[in-house]
Design brief:
- The protein has helices spanning 2-20, 26-35, 64-67, 82-100, 118-121, and strands spanning 41-43, 49-51, 106-111, 131-133, 142-154, 157-165, 171-181, 184-197.
- With 198 residues, the protein is α/β, with parallel strands linked by helices.
- The chain has two domains: 2-67, no CATH class; 82-197, Roll (Nuclear Transport Factor 2, Chain: A), CATH 3.10.450.
- Strands 4-3-5-6-7-8 form a six-stranded mixed beta sheet.
- Strand 6 and strand 7 (171-181) form a beta hairpin.
- The protein is globular, with a radius of gyration of 40 Å.
């Protein structure tokens, strides 16, 4: 009888301990995280919630920054290939030369205020007049054909500011729309595209 009474007492004590320390469940974890430090919960730096006096539970709560919406990434501007720029400049110069002809003994070319390289001038080996770098320009004996700016719209469309300069004899710069169709660049003058006339 005494042994049976001891067993019953032990069982009753176990039941009381279980009531005071409920088994950890997802619901209890959520309650601990919602309660915060005021209800005995302690948040670690990584967002894991731990009951006071116990080890951290293996449940991580993501920080607000981790679930914030990712901002949209702006599309990168179009960057043409050097060969495409050279092709466009060649098309514009041929257009200008056909319109202007040989107004002076020397014809000079300039791209963005710099001399084109030797490879670019080779494109005009068959041209009827010899061409010189822009640095060779001399007022009164030369005409300067220049491309001063290229604004790319897309891979096959670009707006180009270009024109001719003859000092006191006059200068005209316009905006030209240059398009590529089946690999060939063609030039048209934009409506209202005159930039400078002197």
């Amino acid at each position: 009888m005494r042994y049976a009474a001891i067993v019953v007492a032990v069982l009753m004590l176990s039941a009381c301990d279980a009531a005071r320390s409920p088994e950890t469940t997802p619901e209890s974890i959520g309650a601990a995280s919602a309660g915060g430090a005021g209800s005995g919960g302690v948040a670690s730096s990584g967002g894991t919630v731990a009951a006071r006096g116990t080890s951290a539970l293996p449940v991580a709560i993501p920080a607000a920054s981790a679930v914030a919406s990712t901002p949209a990434i702006a599309a990168a501007p179009f960057r043409p290939k050097p060969a495409d720029e050279a092709d466009v400049c060649e098309a514009v110069f041929r257009h200008l030369l056909e319109q202007g002809g040989r107004a002076q003994p020397r014809i000079c070319l300039s791209i963005r205020d710099e001399d084109p390289d030797a490879a670019f001038f080779k494109r005009f080996n068959a041209f009827r007049f010899p061409l010189s770098p822009g640095s060779k320009y001399e007022q009164g004996t030369s005409v300067l054909y220049a491309v001063s700016r290229l604004d790319w719209i897309d891979a096959d469309t670009v707006d180009v500011i270009g024109g001719s300069y003859q000092g006191n004899l006059g200068s005209v710069f316009r905006t030209y729309r240059v398009r590529r169709n089946r690999g060939v660049w063609t030039v048209t003058e934009k409506e209202g595209g005159t930039v400078w006339v002197s």
